[in-house]
Amino acid sequence: MDIFDMATITFIEAEGQAHSVEATVGDSLMRVAIGASVPGILAECGGVCACATCHVLIDPDWAEKISSADDFEAGMIEGAIDPGPNSRLACQITVTDEMNGMVVRLPAAQI
Amino acid sequence: MSTIAPFEPLSPEFERNPYAEFTRMREACRAYRHVGTIMPVVSFFRDADIRTMANDFTTWSSQRSAEYNEKALGDAAILIGNDPPVHTHYRGIVAPLFLPGAMNPLVPLVEEETELALSETVGAGEINFVEDYAARVTIGVICRICGVPDKDRSLMREMTLDLAKEDGRPVFYKSPNPETEARVGRVMTDMTAYLSEHIERRRREPTGDILSMLTARVDDPRHLVGLSILIIGAGNETTTNLMAHGLQELINRPDQMAMLRARPELTDQAIEEMLRMRGTIRKMDRISMIDTEIDGVEIRRGDSIALWNASASRDPAAIERADQFDITRRPNRHLAFGSGIHMCIGNALARIELRLAFRRLLERTRTIELTRGADSYESWGNGVLEAGKRLSVELVPA
Predict the structure, then answer these.
(1) How many whole angstroms separate alpha carbon B112 and alpha carbon B115?
(2) Interchain proximity A82–B101, CB inside 8 Å
(3) CB–CB of B238/B246 below 8 Å?
(4) Each residue's pLDDT expressed in tens, for chain A with a length of 111 residues
(5) Which of B54, B232, B257 lies closest to B156, judged by CA?
């Protein structure tokens, strides 16, 4: 596979455990995490923005490199536990090659 | 395909060992056309198929005809018998009330109900764990968040249990079942009457509970009643059974019970494993929107599709040591709450109830003993619901 089709993304659990994952460009960030068995993401609804259990926190340095949440996602984020300004739902973020090196933090709990 | 022995989910033989049947069917085929049913119906058993199909509502739809919704689902059809755009509209109203952020503030309320149940059962000699502890907690919680008066708790328990008895079965009927349909119809009528009155009170005097909030957001009284039936009905039988069967799993595996007592921080993982192994709702219903062929089975537009999520949750192709109850499993990819736009919106509430119910139960007890040996458990499982009538135990105080 062409190297430009992949991006390395690091998920950091609330307790500090880091998981660096090779992500395929075009996949959702949620699929990437689930595919790599990263704990701490439930993704109960399977990626249709219906459950707010793939809540992640994007490191501020990277926030501008990804598209912002639409109104529907923003509404769902309000239903996550303790959402903050960097909160996103991983199922709504599509991996691009610009995300190579991105750091994504997982909240202490999804529920 | 004709070499596969019949799969009969409504038979007593199936209910005696459903998971062995799921294993047989997962190994035998991807798709199985039922024989002799009034409705044409095809069952699926494997994790990969069920995940894909549950996430594709345009092909595998929940949208029934208005006539079917009226007859089989009643007012509750508003969410479970519809797809977008109607489903999107109502889910948009209900979901925010049940998302994790909305449920977490309810922890003190759940704790109170759990404490009450503990005070009545720990050290009280033999109890029926299903009714005296599990249902006590779940009915208490759902009635309080819906503003149903304490005096009506047992009525709610009775009505929702009655409704659940036939849940999921009609699709497999081999002959008309008018008596059962009439009985379910009567319960539905009673529940509708009760809730209509309750909702009317909330409309006049809103109290901040979930039904008051719904009343402010939904105008059509029938839709309001439908949503209320769904919330109250789905909110107790499912979690009650999971609590009882989860305890049964722990009692059956003393090493896992000992580990959970020693390491209460494993409670959330233990609950996911209970959901995976003994999830209450074994099957999801869909309708095919296309003519197609899968694994040699012809499927026609309009055929009923049975997605056996309880089978998927034990599929060795997706889960290692799938038949082993292991509370350290993490992550745990089960389908107990379904997947896709119809995924159970009560999942956060259920998880919070289970978390507190088990954590407190183990803190307050030194040991939990079956009181009638091999006869300690009695099922009323109906083929589609994993359901316990009685789990006789003694909760011995710490």
Answers:
(1) 5
(2) yes
(3) no
(4) 455 689 999 999 999 999 999 999 999 999 999 999 999 999 999 999 999 999 999 998 898 888 899 999 999 999 999 999 999 999 999 999 999 999 999 999 999
(5) B232
Handedness of CA B82, B240, B165, B312 (dihedral sign): positive
Q: Are A36 and A28 in contact (CB under 8 A)?
A: no
ipTM of the modeled complex: 0.89
Say whether B347 and A78 touch across the interface (CB within 8 A). Answer: no
Report pTM.
Answer: 0.94
CA distance B234 to chain A (A): 17
Q: Which residues of A touch B (CB under 8 A)?
A: 34, 37-41, 44-48, 50-53, 75-76, 78-83, 109-111
**pLDDT-derived band at B220, boundaries 50, 70, 90:** confident
CA A53, CA A76: separation in Å to the nearest integer? 10
pLDDT in tens, A35-53: 999 999 999 999 999 999 9
Chain A partners of B96 at a C-beta cutoff of 8 Å?
75, 78-79
| Contacts for B99 with CB less than 8 Å, ≥ 6 apart | A51, A52, A76, A78, A79, A80, B345, B348
Flag whether residue B144 sits within 8 Å of chain A, measured between CB atoms: no
Q: Which residue of A lies nearest to B50 if distances are taken between CA atoms?
A: A46
Quick one: three-class SS letters along chain A?
CCHHHEEEEEEECCCCCEEEEEEECCCEHHHHHHHCCCCCCCCCCCCCCCCCCCEEEECHHHHCCCCCCCHHHHHHHCCCCCCCCCEEEHHHCECCHHHCCCEEECCCCCC
